[in-house]
Amino acid sequence: MINAFITTKTVRFEHCDPAGLIFYPRYFQLSHQVIEDWFKDGLGHSHADLVVNQRIGIPTVHVEASFLAASRLEEILEYTLQVEKLGNSSVKLNIEAHHNNELRCQIKQVIVFSQLDPQDVKSMPIPDEIRTQMQNFLRIE
Amino acid sequence: MINAFITTKTVRFEHCDPAGLIFYPRYFQLSHQVIEDWFKDGLGHSHADLVVNQRIGIPTVHVEASFLAASRLEEILEYTLQVEKLGNSSVKLNIEAHHNNELRCQIKQVIVFSQLDPQDVKSMPIPDEIRTQMQNFLRIE
Amino acid sequence: MINAFITTKTVRFEHCDPAGLIFYPRYFQLSHQVIEDWFKDGLGHSHADLVVNQRIGIPTVHVEASFLAASRLEEILEYTLQVEKLGNSSVKLNIEAHHNNELRCQIKQVIVFSQLDPQDVKSMPIPDEIRTQMQNFLRIE
Amino acid sequence: MINAFITTKTVRFEHCDPAGLIFYPRYFQLSHQVIEDWFKDGLGHSHADLVVNQRIGIPTVHVEASFLAASRLEEILEYTLQVEKLGNSSVKLNIEAHHNNELRCQIKQVIVFSQLDPQDVKSMPIPDEIRTQMQNFLRIE
Q: Which of A43-52, C61-70, C118-127 is the least confident region?
């Protein structure tokens, strides 16, 4: 059974390098956009409200990515996002980008809910309301 | 024994997010700058000459990164780059960023020497001259 | 009479700075996305096809921009693009971004159709088919 | 008489587009780095301290730029920054980038000292200490 958040992103001129291919740090910008979309449309809780009003951030502490085939200007990437593991403060995500059924990029990423004090970044439990919503995207194998 | 390429990078306004911290995709931009510096100053072979004149690229096929402590605006990051494994076409790098002896970010990254044909990206053996220079940066444990 | 290409863009986390506002170079990335959308959806000619297959670029030679009010994370910007002047090789664009009827940013930008030779960038006449389409977006006052 | 702040920036892989040229929004990232260097090394007042500790920002409200010749991967750009006009809250800067005596890019940019309240951005007088230092970089013709 697959229980994923799905969206698409277009490879833009700004993402491409002199080789004409997407420059790999841009994949992480795109996958963060997918996470932002997931918060808003999948979890029903805007990421901007968390960061700006509640001063709660979701810094990435670990990421592992495979880039399996090159992506090119104006291609549309089909993204799926799933929750692999739901911890107390941390969430392990699996994010994949396909184009025409070809897997282009797979990212496993751990984000940690954190209080954004000016001088410090402290982990905190995932707010209950958000945790409940996240369970709908747990990967079941 | 440590045999590393060493350089520094400054955390710029453009790297920082609304939380006031470096946004993690920017770490990969900075580590690519470290790789560019390494080619030019460590290996004696400009990355621009490879890409533009010889149409040889070094796309990243795998990356694993841990972000251990937050980096902030205008901090100077001390980078070390070492070769962990030297394959036929691929090179596994270990790139670390410290600030005041605190490890901020560790990246293990596999790049693959590739011919940049307009329609295809094909792996190719590492040019001999570059391979010889790379051996000077092999991590010996 | 207004004859404009219209689209929307979302202010993303990657666009915002430590002040929580959009960092102004990102406005130019967004307006370039608007130009890309215009080529594809407004002019019926993919920008990627121009650049990659025909080696025709549209470098910007002049830009003048006013940033009239701050834009914030997750706001949706409503873009309008119009042609102010259609030259032999050059096109002067007027691009505006509004949010809730407030003008956030106005950009006047001159792009020049150019042949992308490896060692040189030479201006060239706007291809006829594209020029014809562009006339539909001429600003009439 | 010329009274300018001078520094250099390298064109990086991340700045270049599929045409192999610097993508023009990156020029504005580079010129902001020049402004950051000017605050620290020219005015003796860190931009980070302003933004993070004093919550004073310097948003750009107007910019006019000419891109006169293409810049390419790994070229070193020689930057000069001068103050054209010193207002009560605003500063008009003239920033130029040369390579081998060829003018690549000229930017006229107005920044405004502003208090960064969470909900608002209000202009404020330039702090006296900074104003005094800025006078050393006034363009005298």
A: C118-127
CB neighbourhood size of A27 (10 A): 26
The DSSP annotation for C14-56 comes to GGB-TTSBB-HHHHHHHHHHHHHHIIIIISS--HHIIIIIS-E
- Comparing alpha-carbon positions, the chain D residue that sits nearest to A21 is D18
Distances (CA, A) of A86 to A28, A40, A50, A132: 21, 19, 19, 10
Q: Which domains does chain D have, with CATH numbers?
A: 5-137 (3.10.129.10)
Q: Does A66 touch chain C (CB under 8 A)?
A: no
Decide if pLDDT at D92 tops 90: yes
Indicate yes or no: CB of B25 within 8 angstroms of CB of A32: yes
Candidates B12, B13, B17, partner chain C, best to mutate (most C CBs within 10 A): B17
Residue that the structure tokens 């104006």 belong to: A74
| Res C67: pLDDT | 97
What pLDDT sits at residue A34?
Answer: 98
pLDDT tens for residues C27-36?
999 999 999 9
For the four alpha carbons of C26, C28, C29 and C34, in that order, the dihedral sign comes to positive
Is the minimum CB–CB distance between C16 and chain B shorter than 8 Å?
yes
Q: Which residues of B touch A25 (CB under 8 A)?
A: 25-26, 28-29, 32
Which value does ipTM take for this structure? 0.94
From CA D25, how far away is CA C126, in angstroms rounded?
23
pLDDT band per the 50, 70, 90 thresholds, residue D120: confident
Nearest to B14 among D20, D29, D72 (CB): D29
Q: Which residues pair with D83 in a beta bridge?
A: D93, D138
Residues in chain A: 141
Which of C12, C15, C16 best tests the B interface by mutation, with the highest count of B CBs <10 A?
C16
Model pLDDT for residues B10-52, shown as the tens digit of each residue: 999 999 998 889 999 999 999 999 999 999 999 999 999 999 8
D52 touches chain B (CB under 8 A): yes
Supply φ then ψ for residue D97, to 5 degrees.
-120, 125
pTM of the model: 0.96
Q: Can you give the pLDDT at residue B20?
A: 82
pLDDT of residue B2: 62
Distance CA A102, CA C39 (A): 27
